[in-house]
Amino acid sequence: MSGKDNKYELEVKISGKLDESLKTAVRDAEKDINKLERKMEVSVKKAEESVGEKREKAIKSLVQASDKFCGTIAKGGALAAEKTTEFLKDSITAGMGFESQMSSFQAVTKSSSSEMERLYSLARKMGETTGFSAEEAGQELERMAMA
């Protein structure tokens, strides 16, 4: 063999070894890339689960706060309605008592309509300016008239 042939034979041997070495390196690189992809998939899945759990906790907290807020509003509304009902009931009861007392006064005194208007006004003023209610003021007017 000539020197030239040896050179080609050497190049082929080197080339074959390089080619095999390159294939091995590529296979190893592919394995490493696949491992990294699996690790990334696992990491992404864990991150998604963590975000999902945090989102779920945040939604639960929001629902709890909303329920508490709505419950407070409902209780406040119920209390306001109850107190308004009590106030209206007391006002109507007081008004009816006053009207009844003044009718009784008119029956006892046989007062005219114009006299009754003045006495209504006086009884109301006494109820506003003294420690007595308008009904109690009407009762006292009736006692004075009967005396």
Task: Describe, in plain words, how this protein is organized in 3D.
The chain has helices at residues 3-109, 113-129, 134-146. With 147 residues, the protein is mainly alpha-helical. The protein has one domain. Helix 1 packs parallel to helix 3 (134-146) and helix 2 (113-129) packs across helix 3 (134-146). It starts with a helix and ends with a helix.
Characteristic terms for this protein:
147 residues, single chain, mainly alpha
- Helix coverage percent of residues? over 70%
Structural class: mainly alpha
Share in β-strands: under 5%
Distance between the termini: 160 Å
Number of helices: 3
Give the biggest sheet: none
Number of strands: 0
Residue runs with pLDDT of under 50 for 5 or more positions: none
Shape: rod-shaped
The whole-angstrom Rg is 50 Å
One letter per element, helices H and strands E, the order comes to: HHH
Number of domains: 1
Query: What average pLDDT do the residues reach?
Result: 81
Which helices and strands, and how do they pair?
Layout: H1 3-109, H2 113-129, H3 134-146
Overview in brief:
By secondary structure, this protein is mainly alpha-helical. It has three helices and no strands.
